[in-house]
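#struct-help
A.M.: can someone run this one for me? Single chain, 436 residues.
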Amino acid sequence: MLPMLKTAIPGPHSRRLMAELAMYESPAITARYLARAESGGIDCPIVFAKTEDVFIEDVDGNRFIDLTAGFGVAIAGHAHPEIVHAAQQQVAIMPHAMGDAFPAQIKVELAKKLAEIMPGHLKRTIFANAGFEAVEAALKTAILKTGKPGVIAFDHAYHGLGYGALAVTSYREHFRQPFLSQLNPHVQHLPFPQHHHGFADLLEKTIVESTVPIGAVIIEPILGRGGIIEAAFECLQQIREITTRYHIVMIVDEIYTGFGRTGDWFAVEAADVIPDMICVGKGMSGGFPISAAIGTDDVMSGWQDQQGEAIHTSTFLGNPVGCAMALASIHLLEKGLIQHVKTIGAYFKEKLQQLQNEFAVICDVRGKGLMLGVEFAHTDPHFTLKLSKALLQHGMICLPCGIQGNILSFTPAYTLQTSHVDFVVEQLKKLLEQIP
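D.P.: on it. Structure tokens below:
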């Protein structure tokens, strides 16, 4: 299958539903498109009706190829039959348990499976719902283990928008600005280490000179929303060496990169680095809100055994449906999907690099596996956003990213095929040929 469009994009039903949503949803969220939705403008989002594999069908019957995997979630393809079946079976017998108080058997099974696939000796899990919750659980773990409140994070990082995660996020300042007075004041941001020159000295100097003792360093091995930028392997190794020496918890946020996105189970494995904690989410279940912070016995010992009510939990912690879907998703990865990521990712990147050779407006093609970014250099600061909207008009869902919004990101499902890549690149080429 390839995209198939039946109406103008967005179609009339999408525009009607978006106008209706604007009557009930906060104006800060989806409904910000209200005026253009009512007037029929192309800025109005499409409204999803059905998903299958790498495709989205909207309420107007238009079929799109999804090059985002739903924000990186649907790694095995949307509504994969095995994952859907696992969810249906679990819903039929027990859709909900009681988190930390009375857990479901399948939560135990998932915790054991995560311990099997994690690198090194990371085997102790704190389950959560959203990715930012996993980050906040990791930050809590760090201060419990070290007693030191200071945290080092990095420029252009995106760790989520909950208050704890927002303090270590610096992707867009306007995300933080209204809430700065309520954020953790003990967080310092260093330049993201895509180059190793002088990095170790800067990191150590920051730790030694900090007025607040540093207890955690948190990093994305590849910036996701920050622009598909890889941390240098040497820098990840230096973080590991320095944090070990100073008894600091190294936290790696693999919410985007984990579970095969880069062609390895976890991105840090390519750098031969084992952190104290890894945060995972997004593709963990293929479509259910579940995440986890996973650490070593040593770092998790900071929590100690709870003699009374747990000091960290949530109503839906270790939800049985999410656990069932996560186990099914992991099973699919074990059957060979990750190897396909390496193959199709290399093919996709090569095709994009060929476009770079043809069009001067493309200044870089980067990324690993199926986490790819195309950077554009254009006098129009909204060029990449306009290009993503033009792609939508041709049946492709693709999002800009990066601090300047000038990178087109490609994070599709691992079931992407060469025919899909060829179609996308051909359509992108046609659009770029129209640039004056």
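A.M.: thanks! DSSP finds 14 helices and 17 strands in the chain.
D.P.: also worth noting: The radius of gyration is 22 Å.
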